[in-house]
Each structure stands twice: as C-alpha cells, then as structure tokens.
C-alpha cells in the first residue's frame, strides 16, 4: 500500500509541475486578451485543486527540512544527499579509527602487563645507588 501511495504522490506532483509550467507560459506570453485571462484563471483553479489533492494524499515519508531548503534555493536535492553521505563516511572512518587505536592500545597493555608493575612509585630519592658496572657501585643524587 505504501508503494501505491508513493506512486500516487509522484504522479500528482508531476501534474502539479506541468500546471505550473503552463501557468508560467501563459503569464510570459500574455497578450492581455480576455481569452488569455480566462485561460490563466482556469489554470490557477486547476493548480488549487491539484494542491488540495496533494494535501489529501497520505504518505508516511518525512522529508528533512534541509532538503526542502535546498530545493527552495534551486539546488539539486541529490547534492544534499551526496554531501550528507560523504559526511557520514568521514565520521564513520574517524570513529572506526578510534576503535582501532583502542583495540591496539588494549592489546599493547595486555602484552606488557607482565613487564610493567601496576604500582609504580615516583618521587625524588637522594643518595640512591646507581650501578654503572654490575660489579661496581657508586653513590649518586637523583632528583
């Protein structure tokens, strides 16, 4: 049923666009004659009826306001879609990179957990013995 409503909406939109084109041609080529005025009034009535039919069509599709703004500015909505998809791809790559770094760092932490003690005390020690040779000891000041 949703497909039928979408098709009906598309057909009605096409008819409305055709009526708008006919109105623009009538306005552009107007001679000011009574016949021309009556034709324009008739097309305007048709346009109003087509807008009413558009309003009556039930369609559960929501159009983002950004897309409507694009159309109002005379831009192609496909450009909006392409730019939106490119932005999502960049964000996805960024998040994927963060996840990869976390996985690698977690692996490094796990592989070095035996080598590095968890409780490392830091501080200044005076007169700490520093060994330069395994058999020789000397006094040094580490700060």
List the helices and strands and how they pair.
Blueprint (H helix, E strand, L loop, with lengths): L1 H27 L5 H23 L8 H8 L4 H36 L12 E9 L2 E7 L1
Antiparallel strand pairs: 1-2
Helix pairs in contact: 1-2
What's this, in brief?
The protein has 143 residues and is mainly alpha-helical. It has four helices and two strands; from the N terminus they run ααααββ. The chain has a two-stranded antiparallel sheet with strand order 1-2.
List keywords for this structure.
143 residues, 2 domains, 4 helices, 66% helix, transcription coregulator activity, transcription regulation, nucleus, Mediator of RNA polymerase II transcription subunit 10
By secondary-structure content and strand pairing, the structural class works out as mainly alpha
Q: How much helical structure, as a percent, in the residues?
A: 55-70%
Uncertain residue ranges: none
Number of strands: 2
The average pLDDT score comes to 78
Strand order within the widest sheet? 1-2
Instruction: Quickly count the helices.
Output: 4
Question: How would you characterize this protein structure?
Answer:
The protein is mostly helical and 143 residues long. The chain folds into two domains: 1-61; 63-116. The protein contains four helices and two strands. It has a two-stranded antiparallel sheet with strand order 1-2. Helix 1 (2-28) runs antiparallel to helix 2. The model has no long low-confidence stretch (mean pLDDT 78). It comes from Yarrowia lipolytica (strain CLIB 122 / E 150) (Yeast). One of its GO terms (cellular component) is mediator complex. Residues 124-143 have a biased composition (Polar residues). Belongs to the Mediator complex subunit 10 family.
């Amino acid at each position: 049923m949703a497909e039928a409503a979408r098709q009906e909406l598309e057909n009605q939109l096409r008819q409305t666009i055709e009526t708008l084109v006919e109105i623009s041609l009538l306005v552009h080529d107007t001679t000011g004659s009574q016949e021309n005025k009556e034709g324009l009034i008739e097309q305007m009535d048709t346009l109003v009826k087509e807008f009413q039919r558009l309003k009556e069509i039930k369609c559960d599709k929501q159009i983002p306001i950004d897309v409507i703004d694009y159309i109002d500015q005379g831009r192609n909505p496909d450009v909006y879609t392409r730019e939106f998809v490119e932005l999502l791809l960049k964000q996805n790559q960024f998040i994927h990179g963060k996840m990869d770094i976390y996985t690698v760092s977690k692996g490094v932490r796990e592989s070095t957990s035996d080598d590095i003690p968890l409780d490392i005390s830091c501080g200044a020690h005076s007169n700490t013995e520093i060994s330069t040779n395994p058999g020789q000891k000397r006094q040094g000041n580490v700060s």
